[in-house]
């Protein structure tokens, strides 16, 4: 990793060139790589915990915390420089993703949400049980990050900021821990079964009591590590669920394991009764095996999103005021900095292109490897690759505030979101566990009255055989599978309401420009009543801040710079602004007619430039439909789904595109509010409506729809409002989404039916004493594995 002189004193990572920061330690100045490490190190030393550095194992860096265990007040996390690495901010509201290794079930999520939700200033708490992460939004004026972390610690959860670049290492540690526990349980099961074979199959008749006791104590010896090590995650999960006031599936598991062990140990020492050491070991082994497979399956769903963040470089070249450059850590970049990017290099931050032109590979975001041409003033994103000449970029966002980090956050939100079916099952599962515990108690009393010697093992069989593990896995495994499947198809899911609405979908509404068409315009006809060059300059400057595809095209008509004041956007109509004291309107013909009621277009016009006294130019524009638009519409209609175009474009242009694509229902000249009213009316009439759009004006309609889809190149408002983001720009992705969520819904229903049917079938058999504890353990585990394997079908494209 390099000599100590080249490494950060705190995090032990290489120090970027020209970074000259240090902390005082035992009378010496120790170099650090950034302000964040400097803040942490100074806090640790100031807290009297400087021996943390003396005894830290640098050879096991990833296993050594960057913050001492004893520093539990978390106050250092309130340092602004440290927060810059992992906290995103929108005004006064901050957001962070936290890693919590001890989250195991829905009861954990409930307890965390209740605890954090009660804190003043906390706006929202989303717990992702599958990946053990918490997303928290809070008002920094009313709450602090340290208060949030301390609140979690009080209920037994130690949380740390989630870093995507460290996720792989944390996942390896989690898998290694599971493998170790699984290995201990597996070895113990083999050894205990060797003795159990003789005891179960009659050899015991040839053994005296001493030999039998010897086999029992050997079994006790091997079963003890299983109970004290392998099974401990179940105990902690059960304790937390009880603390939350909700009994999860680990409660009966823990009762069964501890009850069987205590009873068996008592039998071994008293030489009276039955032992169940083989059942304990096998049960633990099968349960851990199921959870390990579950971890492997869920890991696939986030690898693609997390891997996106790892390609962002750690260093950037920043311009200095004197014209020189310096190499700095990305975490030190601030909005407003100017960075220099060489050909073939990856952008380290979001920004605005300062060079005249640039070509970028944005496949990390869009899935398309073809370079995209950008002009001066266009936005560029972290993770994209500069394809041609050296460029200069003005930084607008870094690290957790970049578009790329936002995609990873959206993936987490989707994995934490639950379809209605899963929410119902979660509610039923806790009552099922309570009913199971009650039935187990009744079973014990009945068998104690009928045959006391069998009461315990029959009760254990009931607890083990009917553990609702498969029921709890039925929905999460399917949800994780469909998210992974769609991710590989270039679709990022934000909300899982898609699963709930896919079965009753009746109508899909499409915007026109940038949705059914590619948003690549050309002027097919124009009529200028003043100088064309001057008109183009005015048009380009009025549209300088537009995110609409037409606006971006019009902005490219001229490079001449004009000062625009009092610029005002009129949604669904156009833009107005004042240049050199003259106020202009640029937009739809009907809007221009408010100024000029008697004006009649001389050509089929989409865009008009005018002042209050005269019309300056009329433009006719044409857009090209997406290649797969017609085939996608045809297939949707074949499936019986009604396809509607809802657009703000003129009637003639909308009908021309609709006819080319085979759409028969067209509603044109629609303002955003009219779109919203039309959609609400359809929903009132019982229609289940999906909306596909990408414009700035589509945000409210996307939010109103039962489910909504947009594209990676869409406006920020559209991306924030939509439930699903298509990364590769394919309209046919709608077909992929439909087929995938329908398959996920089918698999989820199959899992529910199987898990419920199995538990209902095995319960009376176990209560009648017809299922031995070891058989109950195998049956429960195979039931859970069947659910997982069934969900794994979603991973195949």
Outline of the structure:
With 797 residues, the chain is an alpha+beta fold.
Overview of this protein structure:
By secondary structure, the protein is an alpha+beta fold. It has six domains: 4-71, no CATH class; 77-162, Alpha-Beta Plaits, CATH 3.30.70.100; 169-305 and 411-481 and 744-795, no CATH class; 334-397, Calcium-transporting ATPase, cytoplasmic transduction domain A, CATH 2.70.150; 491-516 and 625-738, 3-Layer(aba) Sandwich (Rossmann fold); 518-624, 3-Layer(aba) Sandwich (Calcium-transporting ATPase, cytoplasmic domain N). A seven-stranded mixed sheet has the order 17-29-28-27-18-25-26, sandwiched between helices. A six-stranded antiparallel sheet has the order 9-8-10-16-11-14, with no helix packed on it. A six-stranded antiparallel sheet has the order 19-24-23-22-21-20, with helices on both faces. Helix 9 runs antiparallel to helix 10 (277-310). The longest helix has 37 residues, at 164-200. It starts with 20 loop residues before the first strand and ends in a 6-residue tail after the last helix. Mean pLDDT is 79; it is low at 60-64 and 68-72. It is a multi-pass membrane protein. Pfam families: ATPase-cat_bd, E1-E2_ATPase, HMA, Hydrolase. Residues 94-160 form the HMA domain. Belongs to the cation transport ATPase (P-type) (TC 3.A.3) family. Type IB subfamily.
